[in-house]
Structure prediction request, 496 residues.
Amino acid sequence: MDKKSDIIEKRKKKLLDLKRNKINPYPNDFVVLHTVRDIKKTVEDAPDSLTEDSPVFVVAGRMMAINRFGKASFIRFRDRTGQLQAYLRKDKIGEKSYNMFKQLDIGDFVGLNGGMFKTRTGEWTLLVKEFKLVCKSARPLPEKFHGLKDPEKRYRRRYIDLAMNSDVRDIFMKRSRIVQVIRTFLLDRDFLEVETPMMQPVPGGAEATPFVTHHNALGMDLFLRIAPELYLKRLVIGGFERVFEINRSFRNEGVSTRHNPEFTMLEFYQAYARYEDLMDLTEEMFCHVAREVTGSTSIQYQGNTIDFGTKWRRISLASAMEEFGGIDAGLMNHREGLLEFAASNKIKVTKTGRLGKIITKIFDVLVEPKLLQPTFITGYPIEVSPLSRRSDTEPELADRFELFIAGHEIANGFSELNDPVDQKERFLQQVEDREAGDKEAHYMDEDYIEALEYGMPPTAGEGIGIDRLAMLFTDSVSIREVILFPHMKPVERANG
RNA sequence: GGGCCGUUAGCUCAACUAGGCAGAGCACCUGACUCUUAAUCAGUAGGUUAUAGGUUCGAUUCCUAUACGGCCCA
Prediction:
């Protein structure tokens, strides 16, 4: 048997009392005419025009604090645009109305109308002529000073986190802004925004374990996409020479400060471009985002200044391994030597894995964390790049780059492999790896091969992790801080 | 998957080292107060200490397991 908390019981009793007194605790007829932002702007622009009686503002919001005196009260309330103080006096709103106000709680929504005046301490305040309860809150908000801190409660009940913590609101407004700026940036360059299937018969475009689901009517399993790549390239084949998609992909992996099972990616494809062009475009895009979102091309992340404004470093994987990992470039083609090096550095690698996998694994551990300023790494081995175009000059390498910032992989781009015969061979090699036990290896996608056979113009494409970008621009250590509702295990509810 | 840490009132935290009546602030409730802004003053009330076991005369405290979470590693 649940014993509900005293404080919630009392709130629910107040609700019943309201109903008994024929006051609707959930009306929907209050017409809002102004926002807090509107009011503050008027105060700023024309303070001399304001009197207690005019102009009359009509505004609504959630009460975040109440200071009651005997026959007057100050409240602080907030709408989507900001917070404002209001002053309610018994002699202004009438005894009946004031007694009704006394029954309200922090957390309730009120509709207010009145004029602006300046208090003795100089704060512009709404002098309320009329107020109306707009929504009763049946549960108390957290403490006003400390707010809600427990990360588990913050993630599980993000609405309270948002209601209480302005820095959390700022993070998600910033995230939204980042996406909007990127969208506009691409639209301005004649890219077409599209939506491609999230449920796919063959999951492709990345090395990852997919989620499986089942379509009853079709009697078939489908996979939640691990990337939109192969569909976006089909669109390039169809003549949409510049396309992009910003949406969710899903990977059936563990959760951590950097991984959420569903995450947001931008992927874009540009025909007649090469991967070098996309590096230029990426620099331009990030500078633009930084300027639009923060007002500067350099940002602070975990105590480090990250500068997008200067030319980004471009360095080959082999050189980076030598410079940051201390691995002799001559070792790059020597499997046994690399395995020995990995072992002596306590890096666990799959001994049977392909050479490229061993190299990238060592890179992840020794080099990636050291790449603080934006850095493009190029020259990836072909066997870890099964969808990339083969380099004309070094056929063992792909025309590919990855972008690292603040020790995180942020983007991955390459000139697309548009030779269907080569692509088929690459898939076959992946299938071989899969059969050898590599669960993340690509699946054979015959339908995609067929599409390539119709001809895809030379194209370069890139994926950018939006969550990680949002982490960078909001100085967040954990991906959960930039995802509104991060995945959590369900918990038995003790109290309904 | 492994290691470490955490879970006490609606919220933020004490009490645990060395077992002995579970406490504070805010919020709530009652009263006073017409310029407060972490309002103030007086008084009241609020707990199955995450869950299940064990040790003990006695467990929030020690032990075991489980659940959920955080950080680090894989």
